[in-house]
Amino acid sequence: MPILNRAAELHGEVTRWRHHLHQRPEILYEVHETAAFVAEKLRQFGCDEVVSGIGRTGVVGVINGSKGAGRVIGLRADMDALPMREESGKPYASQTDGRMHACGHDGHMAMLLGAARYLSETRNFAGRVAVIFQPAEEGGAGGAAMVRDGLMERFGIEKVYGMHNLPGLPVGQFAIRPGPIMAATAEFEIAVRGRGGHAAMPHKSVDPVVAAGHLVVALQGIASRSADPLESLVVSVTQIHGGDAHNIIPDEVVLRGTVRTLRKEMAELAERRMREISAGIAAAHGAQITVDYDNNYPVTFNDPAEAAFAEQVAIEVAGEGRVDANVAPLMGGEDFSYMLEARPGAFIFIGNGDSAYLHNSSYDFADDAIPHGISYWVRLAETALAPS
Fold it and tell me: What are the pLDDT digits (tens) for 176-195?
């Protein structure tokens, strides 16, 4: 099945919805205007149930099929933007300085809204489809909040599916893999405390800058010397803060950064070695080092059977040779992982073409991808919920 005729017909209208959302970015859980827009559209489409406030500001619409009783599946899109200034130059650019849809969540919402409209019109399936619009993907764990709020139980969801755009993958193509497709994330803050003093008399101080410098270098050995070279592990120090003057050794330096892994065992290794290395550096320099380590999103793990199912649906939409069924995992994090821990399902990438990359101030979602995304969602729902 190529792109649905109805999806092509809806392209212009859905694009206008996308541009409206793009101009009005909201962040984390404060997506009140966005959620209201989504909920109103779902009511206009004739969804049988529209519920707001799941996971604080999430929205769920339920569409009953016309082919009798059956299972319930969930289709998820994320709603929040990023706290960054847009420099895309688009006529529909963000109207709020310092906020931008730089990850394409506006496009994700638009595609799922288009699919919800189609499914509400046709209802050519058995059972129910729950369209899920989630807040706070960008660091707020909105997926976990919706799961904790009883998302799966309240709507009887048995399987759940997600989709994200991917710059560099041509528009009209898809990519997926069984097993881990996106990384688990962790954040750390390491405080290196010494004894400050005059920079010209370092022997009277315990210099936390020197200790921190050794620590930054030593932490790189976790991936290169503690982990199996065939494993995926990233340890990145991204911030160093300390000192105010050229001639003063500070009392403290703070390091912050992130760890990304594709397996729980590697996450545990990274944390353990970070603490051991920090203790060793502290002893070597006579400093005090404390590690605050926060495990965040788990691995986004595709159930193998569901990944194979999603692959076949994507092939029906895109055609043979236009679906990469073994795409390399991305080391970015994704809180759809919480939903996949709660229910089996699959997460797929849809091509965004030759655009700026995600989280870039020049990024923009590719409107030409919209009919492909709508068609994928519709075909997935109708296939998964085909009458027996």
Answer: 999 999 999 999 999 999 99
